[in-house]
Write a structure and sequence with these properties.
Blueprint: H1 5-13, H2 20-39, E1 44-46, E2 50-57, E3 60-63, E4 70-73, E5 76-83, H3 85-92
Antiparallel strand pairs: 1-2, 2-5, 3-4
Helix pairs in contact: 1-2
Length: 93
Amino acid sequence: MNLNKGTLVDAVVENVDYSKKEVAAVIDALIETITEAVSNGDKVTLFGFGTFESVKREARTCRNPQTGANVTVPARNVPKFKASKTFKELVNN
C-alpha cells in the first residue's frame, strides 16, 4: 500500500477521535514546522522515528549524460533524514 497525504490522514483518523479536517491541519502544521526548522539550520529529532537536518553538499564536477560535457554543480544545503534504530529494526522485521 502506498500512502499519500490523503490516505495518511484517513489512516490516522481511524486511530483517533478527531475529524479529517483536524488531522489534516495537524499534519500540515507538523510538516511546516519541520520544514521551517530544518531550513533554518536546526535539527529535528522525533524519538523512535528519526532525525531531520540540513547538511552541506560540497561543490563538485559532474558530467552531462546527453552532451558529455563537464558541469560544475555549486555547493548547497540539502535536507537529510536519518531513521532511528527503532524504526530501522521495525522495517527489517
